[in-house]
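Re: your question from the hallway

Yes, I did run it. Sequences:
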Amino acid sequence: MSDASARTTPGTSDWRTLCKVRKAAQNASIPEEWKISVPPDTSADVRSVTEDCGLLSPRELDIIDLGTKDVSVLVRLLADKHSGYTSVEVTTAYLKSAIIAHQVTNCLTEIFVEHALYRAREVDQYMVERGEPMGPLHGLPISLKDQFTMRGLETIMGYACNIGKFAENDCVLVEILYELGAVPFVRTNVPQTLMWGETHNNVFGRTVNPYNRKLTPGGSSGGEGALLAMRGSPLGVGTDIDGSLRIPSAFCGLYTLRPSYERLPYHGAANTLMGQESISSVLGPMATSISALKLFTKAIIDSRPWDHDPLAIRKAWNEDEYRLIEHGYGKGMCFAILWDNKVVRPHPPLIRAMNMVKEALEKEGHQVIDWEPLNHIDIYKNAQTILVADGGEEYRMSCEASGEPLITSMSPDEDPHPFDLEVSLVKSLLWQLHTEKRALRKAYLDHWNATTTRTNTGRLVDAIISPAVAYTACPHGLNYDSFYTTLGNAMDYACAVFPVTFVDPKLDLPVDPHDFHNHEDEAFYKLYHPDVFPGVPVGLQLLGRTLEEEAVIGMVELVDAAVKKHAFDRV
Amino acid sequence: MSDASARTTPGTSDWRTLCKVRKAAQNASIPEEWKISVPPDTSADVRSVTEDCGLLSPRELDIIDLGTKDVSVLVRLLADKHSGYTSVEVTTAYLKSAIIAHQVTNCLTEIFVEHALYRAREVDQYMVERGEPMGPLHGLPISLKDQFTMRGLETIMGYACNIGKFAENDCVLVEILYELGAVPFVRTNVPQTLMWGETHNNVFGRTVNPYNRKLTPGGSSGGEGALLAMRGSPLGVGTDIDGSLRIPSAFCGLYTLRPSYERLPYHGAANTLMGQESISSVLGPMATSISALKLFTKAIIDSRPWDHDPLAIRKAWNEDEYRLIEHGYGKGMCFAILWDNKVVRPHPPLIRAMNMVKEALEKEGHQVIDWEPLNHIDIYKNAQTILVADGGEEYRMSCEASGEPLITSMSPDEDPHPFDLEVSLVKSLLWQLHTEKRALRKAYLDHWNATTTRTNTGRLVDAIISPAVAYTACPHGLNYDSFYTTLGNAMDYACAVFPVTFVDPKLDLPVDPHDFHNHEDEAFYKLYHPDVFPGVPVGLQLLGRTLEEEAVIGMVELVDAAVKKHAFDRV
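Structure:
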């Protein structure tokens, strides 16, 4: 027993045991027949192991090759019932390949062979029965960063405290992937806190780069990076709050897209710095083939993620923009290169790479100019300060929950790196409120979605009509009502107000008191005397869904026209 | 001298004087010939004063009538060079009408007759010279809430401390309105702090409801409410963080649209709770005619506000959605009515109004059902807690800057209203960071926009190409670089990473040290030895603009194809 473990305080042995048990469970989830003879540590580049180990049949190796070169070709084959490729076969090939990758790079967290094959069979059965694919990702195995919650599985996300917490629901992304016919088949490793550009944690350990195991695959989507570089997945999904898609993609030779905030649906995924909405983490595809970017992004957007995620932006896939309609249709464009951001200068390979791009573009008839950096250090400091605004409170709490130590260096010898930008630590309770608000928005959205069972249109309720204020224009000093308007702000629904009639003391007689909801309700009740308000206008509110301004205008015009047409029916 | 003023502390006389002088300046900005004989306070409904006072000619009254009934008709006349209507004539009519409205409701802040008429002449001149309208709002006078900054004017926004601070720039909305041919002609009153549903402040005093001057017009866009109800503007622009468009519209018989966050461009406008992005204030049109909603919203969106406001969502006006394509094209829809939100029950006039709507819709063949409220009190409390998250710090600082007291009640007799929801006060420094980030994003956007002068395409730079990381895959523990990726996160640019080549020690030779930017730059320089990195991939990053995922994918495919095509040119 070392000195370190002799100093073990009560509780700390628990996290070590917990991690050991969890790691053993992971090992046990690997089928015995898929265990390979792992090359010695001195073997740096392990990429050929997939083929050399002999676990995959020639046909399975062909499948892996296909998916590596162009995932869209693999998808086309899976969608063609006469192609002879089934999801079970493709998923099996990738399960084997992923598990090989894991054994040499430690890239996986959740390994669920039976679950994945069950899903693949379901998808194949669909094809047999209907003769058509389930969706644009029919039968495709997809790997997921260890944030994308799946019902029945833990989401360890680099913290021992998450061991044994099994999810009750799929996150929205996984729901959509199922809708589209995909087959989630493994989840991939991340660093503790998610806020490192490498991939190491106390539960699953360190992920290494298959190009050279002495090197990092980057992070925080480093498990994906290593897996994909090993040809262990045709398409992976990672996340990016500060480079976490792009760093491992750059380090592992992959393609990725980091979409803007809220274009793709993050709701329900586990995350770090929960409730921090100043710089939102985003999800995106990672792959060895470039076709994965459009395939994945278009498929997800075409599924209308805004119907499921209250924060996802309601904005359809625009094929014209994809065709560069706003960029000269891709002809005679002008590119700018940032050679040096005046914070750190790139290494020579990057300068060369940029020169290669410059030349290639110029040969294609494009202009290439220098990009002038502006405020890069200010931008960086601002962003980093935002990202530590809780003073590390969440990290500490997540560690304390299990007793595991906070990892303060990604170095194997645990030497803290001296690099420090001296960001000031601040505290914010806003994040808790964001989290609460997000949950409330989701609940309201689900609630609205559930109205299909109560309409006879086959659709949801189209709009809500309500007061804008509980009363009409009231005496100075007495208006304290935003009870009817706050909903629109907090849920961010597009809504309109329109005038309907005027207070008429003959028609608007006081009513008997009801069972008051609360003190304010009573005060409001007592406020009403028809003689105080005669002739003042009575407006109402129409609420549509988030980003539905046009429809709200159209609907309020329709409502208004209808009201006007029949205004005198009742009087 | 009353007891209250006897207790006046040093400095407080300054704010009183300041406000008195500013109010006198406002009075002085009213042309003498437009001053009317104001009816006595006992005259509650003052709406007929516009006509009765005799200031407007019959033709001017016809113009006001036109704009009141249907602003789009007025706009069509202004856009028709043969109609006989000029912007000067229309603007003059509305200036008179607005100034009449102000004299009876105290609805205005900035009155700039000469400036407005100068602009109207400019627009008319454009028509004479070009024979066509300047834009979809050609010649239209538009009133603006006292938040929409205009170059050369103060933006008092309800605080004495803003007296004497003259803006150097127009806000983005005003820039766009000028582009579209509009004529901003008055600005309208707001409450101190903007966070009241009424309209009163120490500088300009209280705005009253023209339907009944004993009543409030609502707030915080209450100056607009009163002005529009007086037919003093054909179209106004207000804002809404918690009901501020909808309350005065309901109270003053107007139409409004509260769009979702960031659909319309807020950048550069003054605001309360600066940097608070959890529940964003939005701007929207207010008018007596429903056509104003589409007219204004479509015109602003068609102007591509996202080109000018980094937070504005890049989402085109969709005429199909306006035609209710997703709502059965407006046929056989289902509406739901929220009769009572279980917090406060609406007054009888509102119940009746809802019944009128229900009947009208049912007669038109629509289904009308009850809306079941969900969590309304939780939603309300959450939102209110967010809105006081700085513990009132900004209000206090804004008041302390001039010495004026914080208004704690909207009641004329200053009795504090007992109503209190007991929201807990919290503190957050995040808001300061949001403010800083917003300014940095704007600066970067302007910077990018300025590249038109350096390209030969007639457009901006189409995309930025840069490293994703300053180096390639590095040894464990040494990756501390997000200097190249943070830009994308903080600016929220869509960006992609793509592989270009591999490190080749023969080609990628070390270079001599440069003049290091800083310690990190030096450390990174020293990190490079080609022998450490042989054969590892070299990826790059392509950055597009916010919400430009499709174009980024299209561009990275193009770049990638070009790189592949010419990969061996150089080697």
